[in-house]
Design goal:
seven-stranded parallel beta sheet; 37% helix
């Protein structure tokens, strides 16, 4: 209203002042200000002011599901399980979260994810620091990490300098990939325990060579569901997310932020494995070799 009062005061001036204001362009400015004030009054009195300020609901950004994949980086990873899992995460439109390394389970899953055509999500890696606390450790980030999250944390596993809680807490659901060789890997077990501790829906994806008895401790003590196929994984995660919403308790689950992502985990997925994956497009990293010397196009069907 001060603009309106200023305008009325100036417009009430004598003729000499009027000529001066004309010469300086003041009258044109005041006319514009008056129109602005009138329009503002009309908007406020008309009840449309809130509508102008409130963003359209359709324009609100939707949070993309973040699927965390963990597994051993000390053993040869199960290639079929990793490739199919990476493709599945890409095809349901989720982001992939890993510890950001270039080998082991994380490296293979990230490669399969990144090389899946037309995916909307991105590959995220939580990166450990070197001794300085400000630079990435040697070998990080991996070649297929598109969004590296650099931390000041220097270790994995238990302890205050571990980056593992960041990996788990930044995710909505957790999938641990296990084969016979890595079934007793303490790092993988630690990730699963963290997921349960922080009430994240979690599931074990067992390779074909891994007997259920090898992970009996995790299954019985932590009530972690185990699966062997991508179809079973979808069902298990759907139940886990439903448990996170309060319907049941499965896989550690009462995480409130996971409950809004049920749609993404229940999407019907047809894993495309007939065509070879395209080459990676990373310009700064070296394409990691398969530990078996095989390429991904040799992986067919959804049974691990």
């Amino acid at each position: 209203m001060w603009l309106k009062r200023l305008g009325e005061t100036l417009l009430a001036s004598d003729d000499e002042d009027e000529e001066l204001m004309d010469s300086l362009g003041f009258n044109q400015l005041l006319g514009t200000a008056k129109r602005f004030v009138d329009t503002a009054n009309e908007v406020v009195l008309g009840g449309t002011f809130g509508e102008l300020l409130a963003p359209a609901e359709a324009d609100a950004p939707q949070k993309r599901l973040v699927v965390c994949v963990v597994g051993s980086d000390k053993h040869d990873p199960p290639m079929e399980a990793c490739v199919q899992l990476g493709r599945w995460v890409a095809q349901i439109g989720a982001n992939l979260m890993t510890g950001g390394c270039n080998h082991g389970v994380a490296g293979l899953v990230a490669r399969a994810y990144v090389e899946t055509p037309d995916r909307p999500g991105c590959s995220i890696g939580v990166i450990p620091a070197d001794a300085t606390g400000s630079r990435p450790q040697s070998g990080f980030p991996g070649a297929f990490v598109e969004v590296p999250i650099q931390t000041h944390l220097t270790k994995s596993g238990p302890g205050p300098q571990s980056r593992d809680p960041v990996v788990i807490l930044s995710s909505d659901v957790v999938v641990a990939v296990v084969n016979a060789e890595s079934a007793s890997d303490p790092h993988t077990h630690g990730f699963v325990r963290l997921a349960v501790q922080h009430q994240k829906p979690v599931c074990l994806l067992l390779a074909e060579d891994c007997p259920e008895s090898a992970v009996e401790q995790l299954v019985t003590q932590l009530k972690t569901p185990l699966v062997r196929t991508i179809d079973e994984l979808e069902v298990a995660l759907e139940r886990a997310v439903a448990g996170a919403a309060g319907d049941e308790t499965v896989g550690g689950g009462s995480s409130a932020n996971a409950s809004s992502h049920t749609r993404a985990t229940t999407t019907s997925i047809s894993v495309q494995t007939d065509d070879p994956l395209p080459n990676a497009t990373s310009a700064t990293n070296t394409r990691p070799e398969s530990p078996t010397g095989q390429d991904f196009e040799l992986i067919d069907n959804k049974t691990l």
